Amino acid sequence: MIQEIVSGLSIGCIYAMTGFGFVLIYNAVGAVNFAYGEIVMFGGYFGYLAIQSFGWSLGLAFLFSILAMAGLGIFNDYFAYFPMRHRPVVTVIIASIGLSILLRNSALAIWGPDPVKIKSFVGDQLVHIGNVVFPLHQLLIFIVTAFIFVGQVFFFSRTSIGRKLEATAQDQEMAKLMGIKVNRMILLTFVLAACLASIAGFLLAPLWFLEPDVGLYIIVKAFIAIVIGGFGSVYGLMAGGLFLGVTEVLVASHLTSEYKDVISFLILVTVLIVLPQGFFGEKVAEKV
Amino acid sequence: AILFFSTAAFARIDVGVIGSMTSGLALLGQRQINSAILAAEEWNAKGGINGEKTKLAIEDSGKSTTQAMTALDRVLAENVCAILGPIYSFQLFAMFPEINKEGVPLLSTSGTRKLTQMGNRWYFRLYPHDGITKRAYTLFAVEELGCTRPALMCVTTEYGKSGYKIIMDVLKSKGIKPVAVTWHEKSDKDMTGQLERIRRAHPSCIISQAHPPDTAQIIRQQYELGINIPHIASSAASMPTVHKLVGKYMEGVYVEAAAIPNYDPDPKIQAWTKKYVKKFRTRPDSFALLYYDTANFLFNAIKAVGPDRKKIRDWLEKNSYKGLAGRYKFDKEHNGAFFAIIVQYHMKNGKAIPTVVKKYDFTPE
Amino acid sequence: MVMLRVERIEVFYGNVQALRNIEFEVNQGEIVTLLGANGAGKSTILRTISGLIRPRKGRIIYLEKEISRMSVEDIVSKGISHVPEGRRIFPGLTVYGNLEVATSSWRKRGASIQDELNNVFRLFPKLRERMNQLGWSLSGGEQQMLAIGRGLMSRPKLLLLDEPSLGLAPKLVQSVFETIKTINAQGTTILLVEQNAYAALQIAHRGYVLENGEVVLHGPARDLAANENVRKAYLGG
Amino acid sequence: MNTSGGALIEVEDLGIRFGGLLAVSDVSFHVSEGSIHALIGPNGAGKTTILNMISGIYRPSRGKIIYGGRNIVGLPPYMVTREGIARTFQNIQVFEGLSVLENVMVARHVRTSVNLLSTILKTPKARREEKSIADKAVEALRFVGLADRKDMDAMNLPYGQKRLMEIARALATEPHLLLLDEPSAGMNEAEVLNLVNFINQIREKGITVILIEHNMRLVMKISDRITVLDFGEKIAEGPPEEIQNDPRVIEAYLGTENGYA
Amino acid sequence: MGFTKRQMIVTLICFAAAVVLPIFFRGSRYYMNLFNLAGIFIILTFSLNYIHGYLGLISIGQAGFFAIGAYITAGLTMGLGINYFPALLLASIAAALAGVLLGLPASRIGGHYFVLITLAFGEIVRLIILNWKEVTHGTNGVNNIPPPRLGPLLIESRFAYYYLVLFFIIVTMVVAASVRRSKYGRSMLATKVGELAANVMGINPLSTKLINFGISSFFAGLAGGLYASYIGSISPEAFDVDLSVDILTMTLVGGSGTIPGPVIGATALVFLKEWLRAVKEYYMIIYGAGIVLIMIFMPYGIMGLLRRVRDVISSREVR
Ligand SMILES: Nc1ncnc2c1ncn2[C@@H]1O[C@H](COP(=O)(O)OP(=O)(O)OP(=O)(O)O)[C@@H](O)[C@H]1O
Ligand SMILES: Nc1ncnc2c1ncn2[C@@H]1O[C@H](COP(=O)(O)OP(=O)(O)OP(=O)(O)O)[C@@H](O)[C@H]1O
Ligand SMILES: [Mg+2]
Ligand SMILES: [Mg+2]
């Protein structure tokens, strides 16, 4: 049981890691970015590229990935967001679906369909604690996730830049009238989110491998985590991610492995019915 | 990535090739299309079939039935004399009625048992179907490894499900019941839940039936979690890609395969593999090797009877072919390959090297 | 000294012309009011000045620089603050968050905004009570207070107010107008759009009257208040 | 009390809490049939919240709303409207993308009966009904003087006309009780005079009105009775003359010198 | 209300063209196939057109209803031997019921959540089809689905099928047109832009949405039933998220909320996808980029573009 929970928590951390950048973008532009899973995938693939094709060390590869991803963030903004900034969010959401197809298939064309992996920063040792075993890399995942979680909570609740982002997402025109450099803020967000994706990619690749479809897989999981937790809330994402990760493992182990995903989706639907705002979502309604 | 393929403009013999070049299914599809290209180029370099060049009409069947159907339409529009088909059974099933109506031979390297049980006179399978390979590795587990308490881990796709049935049948014939059975999605990234369930059942070996990435995940996590019992994996685990992912945990793993192109000591296969790698910059898998044999078998047929659909079919039914991987001869259901090997992997200098531990041949006499 | 000069601007919504040849100026230290019936184009003028809409023709000169081609953010950072029609509170930010965000144009890292906050709370004590309530759930009047407060937080040189008294209780209307007078006395120039023409003309120095997107009359506030037509059209008598 | 009958709606001990905030507490008042009843009070006093509870948007934490002899607490908004209570909004609510006419037609649906199948099959009955929806909607627009703007996208109406359209929309539901939330906001004095006539005409149609307003001239001119709220509680109630001179009301709401009002 | 004269004429011309079109392509099985697929996708696109055009919601779960329609039609005709047309009707009704059922939780929430809940729904349907082998035959799918029979007539050839599909397209369009111009359409549009206000105006938001979901999934189910008998073989792979995304793209390319939109969008995309095959494995990349470019340059789809062109021309006439 403890083994299952530990593994579940680490899965949850990966979901949350994927979600952080997603929430960042959501909180800045008020739209779901469906391409974010693929962006995380690219974060990993850029590292793989540097290691495999340029023969660079892991550390250098990571730096390369961060830089390349900053570029991808800029691309994401200027291609799939900026031209549509004055249109209904629906258009932005759909553009992100288009971008996700574009990126997924580009990865397929560039790196082929085979799954690949990159090494972990901490090697592939195992940690034994009592009867529980886990790869050292999972420990790294826990630590990094916790770190970014705290950072992001701080960012949104304590810094004025976080507040400016929220304002931007809620009413861009008004945000401009407040003197917020809206376009720059959004560009910054996309870049930041892409850099986070690079970290997520490096954390994910050693355990879950990189393949062109991996982005789709994790973004769906991250979505469920986000909805369970409450849209836009960093706490919610973290809680939702851990909850989902642990539930999945426990269900597969003790209930049914065949309908494991159906159960995750049912949990999602149930949460939506019982708690439409998720665990941590704030209600923002219309005042008449 | 794949290369575009075109031959001289005065090509005469049209052969259709349908396979997945996009989406996640491209993992297998691309390699097979490569093989077809390689075979055709070789024939053309030697002056063609009876002096006429072969032209391949290559179409992507993507990941859906609809796409496979339009691919078929496009191939048929080229008036092909035969088709080298996709590996995925759901696409093949969808193509069957058209194939029958049109009367065009369709050859593929799929393992799904049911394909040849539908009485389709135009479809030919040139891969040992699950009934052969699953039987081989289940028998191997029980007879050679003495595993009486097996646990099964299967993927929820048709591949996993039909394999599961055959494994269960073989086990039943031996009077054995698996102590645990788990399922997972092809895209699943973590098997801890399934493996913990298996651990609680105290099995003496694990038989898995899954696709490449999930197989890698299963093997790695099994040993990471310290479940130190033999693992008998399906042919996905013979792929070099999988070895890279699993790393040192490949040590001792048994794998069922139709062929092992990358490590077969046979010099002919070695030469072929080299050529393939050089040309496509990716390693072939067993499907690719057998697809290459399939293409050659077909070209031989065309050579013998010309590009006539019906004659090709009849010729294929009657003749046999000795390819790189083995001998092909069709039974009444049009199954053409009955060989299977079991290999065991050992780690040498960080690489997983297979050694053949048992060969099975179920060719009906 | 002329602070803002609007030179013959024309503004369109799609194919519909909303402003024709509008021309007026605001001097440093003045309160200038724009009067006009529903749909006359008052709000459109303010939106054009703050850069939310681009004029098709004409120029707007602010402190001797043309601003009609600048981005909204740049205009705002030059000290123009626009309190728009319809309040436009950030619904998901708290009252504090709404006020804090408004200091973006001048605030350096870590600078204190306490003085500004106190200023706003002195004017609208109700907002202090509601400090941590989310914007959307405020009552209409509270939202209006917040909108004005937000405008004040940005340390404006020129304040554009679009119907600031809308939806405020009578007692508060008085104090809002008094505040406008006070901040004007402290050096902020004000361009005021008000339906409460009576009050607006009482505190303004000069006024312009708009009809169908054109300036039809202008002059000192006192003269306008005495004008027969103005009385009939806007003062209800 | 000036009156034409018994109470149409009785609000009893109404209260609602938002988190820690008691937005309305123990408010009671009766509105007699055919009268105009004003609700005034400082910003945030709870006026709109009371309308929201009457129209079913918020569910009160306590208290009763007796309308036509029965307690309507718990009815969803569309049922409340079906019962004959219509309203306008303080924050204007226009159906964007629909024409002015369609905006008003939407409000007629509550009085229709043709089912989905007949609508799809376009039975004669469905056609007749569709026509009557349009006719009644035009009639309501004519009443507020917006008939000539019926084909315009409602979103592009100027602020004041949007308010008029909202009134037309509310009237189109054929209410017995009309709730108006700050109808004069955004209108100048001349337009307010117009509005006064107009509310009087509504009363003449036999419709009872509950009116929230900050424009005291308007309120004093047309209300039969006024209820004053402060911090969610009722602090006074009575006819206009009485309220105007009530020291508590002056202190909390009107202000001492009537300088700018 | 009703059509203007000009719209009437354009509509008639289009129908006439649609009726004679296949006569020229009769010899090409390939083009006939594409026409038929386009036809089925037109109906499918209409189904999303309701949800997106009238309620402003994005669904990426339409494939789920499509699958329900397909499997139930196949099951009824093959398993119970029911004639195709009643089976098709029953299957569509079943899909409609599923839509209403999904609508119960989904109508309480808006926007982003809705996208995700439909995504979840589509996946649940696919997973159930995949795993419930006894009924759905898992990944093997259902094969040899018989072609429709209309009395003595067996609708087997692609040519004959074309007219069957055309008939249902017309039905779909007629329904769409009468809903748009009815109180139901108006209620939906009002709910889309201001749910609370519509509620206060006497519109029951739940029933309005459920009616919308019901109609929407009815047509998705109908398209599924047509697809099943047309292709003759169905399996879970055909009904994944990508299909739902395709439908969404078609809706938007055409111009959502309009009547000609789905026709244009579905046809354009079916053919575009085919033409892009020339670039082999790069075509999905181009397809993805294409979606983004459409959003950038024609946010209201081809219909929006046509309308803009028309506005420009007519404003020139005025001058
Ligand atoms: N977004 C828009 N699209 C089209 N026309 C518009 C738009 N906004 C305003 N208009 C039109 O422009 C004209 C001027 O509107 P504006 O809002 O500036 O008037 P206003 O004087 O502020 O009126 P009010 O007193 O009602 O606020 C009006 O006729 C209005 O209908
Ligand atoms: N949904 C809500 N959540 C939290 N607080 C609320 C909510 N709705 C209203 N309030 C608070 O309840 C109080 C009463 O609000 P209400 O809108 O009824 O005021 P009002 O009397 O209409 O004021 P105004 O004249 O300014 O419109 C306000 O202080 C407001 O902030
Ligand atoms: Mg205005
Ligand atoms: Mg109010």
Give the full name of the CATH homologous superfamily of chain C. Answer: P-loop containing nucleotide triphosphate hydrolases
Q: What proportion strand of chain E?
A: under 5%
Distance linking N and C termini of chain C? 35 Å
The assembly state of the depicted protein chains is heteropentamer
Shape of chain E: globular
What's the CATH class label of chain E?
Mainly Alpha
Individual helix count of chain E:
14
Secondary-structure blueprint:
The complex is a heteropentamer of chains A (288), B (365), C (237), D (261) and E (319).
Chain B: E1 13-19, H1 26-45, E2 54-60, H2 65-77, E3 82-84, H3 89-102, E4 106-108, E5 123-125, H4 130-144, E6 150-155, H5 158-173, E7 180-184, H6 192-200, E8 205-209, H7 212-224, E9 231-233, H8 240-246, E10 254-257, H9 267-280, H10 286-305, H11 309-318, E11 320-322, E12 327-329, E13 339-348, E14 351-361
Helix pairs in contact in B: 1-10, 2-3, 4-5, 7-8, 10-11
Chain C: E1 2-13, E2 16-27, E3 31-36, H1 42-49, E4 57-62, E5 65-66, H2 72-77, E6 80-83, H3 95-101, H4 114-123, H5 125-129, H6 140-153, E7 158-162, H7 170-185, E8 189-193, H8 197-203, E9 206-211, E10 214-220, H9 221-226, H10 228-234
Parallel strand pairs in C: 3-8, 3-9, 6-7, 7-8
Antiparallel strand pairs in C: 1-2, 1-4, 4-5, 9-10
Helix pairs in contact in C: 3-6, 4-6
Chain D: E1 7-18, E2 21-32, E3 36-40, H1 47-54, E4 62-67, E5 70-71, H2 77-82, E6 85-87, H3 100-108, H4 116-121, H5 124-144, H6 159-172, E7 177-181, H7 189-204, E8 208-212, H8 216-222, E9 225-230, E10 233-238, H9 240-244, H10 247-254
Parallel strand pairs in D: 3-8, 3-9, 6-7, 7-8
Antiparallel strand pairs in D: 1-2, 1-4, 4-5, 9-10
Helix pairs in contact in D: 3-5, 3-6, 5-6
The site of one magnesium ion has 3 residues of chain D, from α1.
Polypeptide structure, described:
The complex is a heteropentamer of chains A (288), B (365), C (237), D (261) and E (319). With 288 residues, chain A is mostly helical. Chain A has helices spanning 2-29, 36-52, 58-80, 89-111, 136-158, 160-170, 172-177, 182-208, 214-229, 234-255, 260-274, and strands spanning 126-129, 132-135. Chain A has a two-stranded antiparallel sheet with strand order 1-2. In chain A, helix 2 (36-52) runs antiparallel to helix 3 (58-80). The termini of chain A are far apart. Helix content of chain D is 38%, strand content 24%. Chain D has ten helices and ten strands. A six-stranded mixed beta sheet of chain D has the order 6-7-8-3-9-10, sandwiched between helices. Chain D has a four-stranded antiparallel beta sheet with strand order 2-1-4-5, covered by helices on one side. Chain E has 319 residues and is mainly alpha-helical. Chain E has helices at residues 5-25, 29-55, 62-79, 84-106, 111-131, 133-136, 158-180, 183-193, 195-200, 205-231, 241-254, 260-275, 283-297, 301-318, and strands at 149-150, 153-154. The two termini of chain E are 29 Å apart. The model of chain E has no long low-confidence stretch (mean pLDDT 86). Chains in contact: A-B, A-C, A-D, A-E, B-E, C-D, D-E. Bound molecules: adenosine-5'-triphosphate (2 copies) and magnesium ion (2 copies). One magnesium ion (MG) binds at residues 47-48, 90 of chain D.
